[in-house]
Amino acid sequence: MSSRHQKLIDYVSDIRRRNHASASALIIMQNSKIVLEHYKGTHSNEPSKKIDMNSMFNVASARKSYLALAISFALYEKKIHSLDDPIEKYLSDYDKKPFRGTTIRHLATHSHGLDERADGMIIREFNAGEKWAYRGINVRILTELFRHLYGLDFTLFLKERVFIPLGMEHTIWATSPSPSLVKVIDSPEFHGEFKLDSSDDGMGSNLHTTARELAMWGNLHLQMGCHEGIQVVPEAVIKTATTIQNSEYDDNRLPDNGLFWYVQNKSRAFSEIGEHVPKGAYQILGNTGPLLLVVPENNLVVVRMSNKRYNYGGDNYLHYIREFSDLAYQTIATKNVMHTSSSIL
User: Fold this and answer.
1) What is the CA 316 to chain-centroid distance, rounded?
2) What is the pTM of this model?
3) 79 phi, psi to nearest 5 deg
4) How far apart are CA 246 and CA 259, in angstroms?
5) Which of 89, 100, 176, 322 has its CA 20 to 30 A from that of 56?
6) Which CATH entry fits the domain spanning 3-46+55-344: 3.40.710.10, 3.40.50.880, 2.40.50.100, 1.10.10.10?
7) In angstroms, rounded to a whole number, what is the distance separating the alpha carbons of residues 137 and 94?
């Protein structure tokens, strides 16, 4: 193992300790091969099994990348005419204020301007397309849209069209406890808990996967839908999801997005991608610690897993996310890796 690898492993372990997580995993894949794999810790902050390659982490908001692929499929298969179609064209319940003027593009790029109050009332924060704000209502609307278009949940669609062809057996929207699931820690004062939902329809944040299968998911995108010589997903579907789809904002600090993915063009102050990561890279993040970075320029996929709710750093968490992506990229960019290194501790 090189000193550069050890520096990255130490960084991940240090953030895990600081954030009071019990578990971490790290995978670097280049040229479709794992070149670094490291696991540390246990499934919870109580006596529990050690983390290994079969440990399934809750990926929280990183699940948006899966919904993104489903929506991109709908566009490719002409279930959706255009990303610029207003949502009420397909879902009549949204043909009223404050939804008017909100397009599928706005919903998939966090530029919709909608929010939901504690009492369930939907409010408009800003005009659609003018700004960027991370809210959860867009996930619910686009999940409903896919079900309306296809007559089934996007989770089942992806299982049949993507997961089974890829051999992904450990990526599930979990509805019941399992020894393979890693518990999520909300506070170091309390034992971790399973983050489950009563349904696997994709509405809840109960998606769990292993570090290896998240890397496989990233590599499918990197290889433009091709896996082991087979075109599992049309190239155009991947391209739509992972290239910039938002309009230019007046505020140049705001991040660029594909369909949910953060995409690197010019480095943006409010982006989660580090300034040294090259143009064309894209990344997705969850608040329980998962991170998936894809760097086409270097044929690189990076996965980091953790199990603590809210990423380390408080209001300054973006600094540490950007710092990690810069460090991970530089670990590979400075010198190509020629051998596989695996460590399970």
Assistant:
1) 20
2) 0.95
3) -70, -30
4) 9
5) 322
6) 3.40.710.10
7) 12
